[in-house]
C-alpha cells in the first residue's frame, strides 16, 4: 500500500509541475469526476485530478473534492484529510476532512491528534463532526476532549459529546453524565443523556449475563 501511495504522490507532483493543468476548476468538473469514480474507483488519473482539486482548487471545489475522496474511502487521500482537517481556512473543508478520516477508520496517533484539534475548532459544525468521529474511535487519548465538550454553551455540541461517550469504559464518563443530567436545563440534551445512560446500563448487564453464562457452561 505504501508503494502505491508513493507512486500516486510522485505522479501528482509530476503532473502539477508540468504544463498539463490537472486542477478541476469547477464544481461540475468534480461532479463529473465523481461519476467516473463511481463506475471505476481505481481510475488513477481521475483520483489524481480530485486530489489536486482538494489541494489547489477554490473553496467550494476543495470541499467537493474532499467529499468525493471521503465517499470512495481512498487511502491515498489520508494525508489530504490530515492536512485539510486543521489547516484549511474553510470550515466546510475541515469538517469534511474529519469525516473522511472517520470513514477511513484511521485510529492512529496522527489521526487522533487531528480529531482532538477538531473538537476544539472555532466552528461548531467541525466540533460536532470531530466528536462523532471521536465516538467511533473510542480512543482514550480523546476522552478528556470529549468530557470538556460537555460544558459547551452550544447544546448541539453537548449532545454530540454525550453520544460520543456512549462506549467509553471509564468511571469518569458515568459521573459526568449523571452530573450533566441533573444540571443541564435543555430538554433535548437531558433526553440524549438518559438514552446513553440507559444504553450503558444495558451493556453492563449484558456483560454480566455473558460472564454468568460462561461460568454455568464451565
Biggest sheet, in brief? none
Q: Give the fraction of residues assigned to helices.
A: over 70%
Per DSSP E runs of 2 or more residues, the count of β-strands stands at 0
Radius of gyration: 21 Å
Strand content: under 5%
N/C terminus separation: 44 Å
The residue ranges in which pLDDT falls below 50 over 5 or more consecutive positions are: 1-22
| Broad structural category | mainly alpha
SSE pattern: HHHHHHHHHHHH
| Helix count, DSSP H or I runs of 4 or more residues | 12
Mean of all residue-level pLDDT scores: 84
Shape: elongated
Task: Explain what this protein looks like in three dimensions.
- The chain is mainly alpha-helical.
- Helix content is 75%, strand content 0%.
- The longest helix is centred in the last third of the chain and has 31 residues, at 187-217.
- The chain is elongated.
Highlighted features:
218 residues; mainly alpha; disordered N terminus
In summary, what is this structure?
The protein has helices at residues 2-17, 27-39, 44-56, 59-71, 78-87, 91-103, 109-119, 124-137, 143-149, 155-164, 171-183, 187-217. It has 218 residues and is mainly alpha-helical.
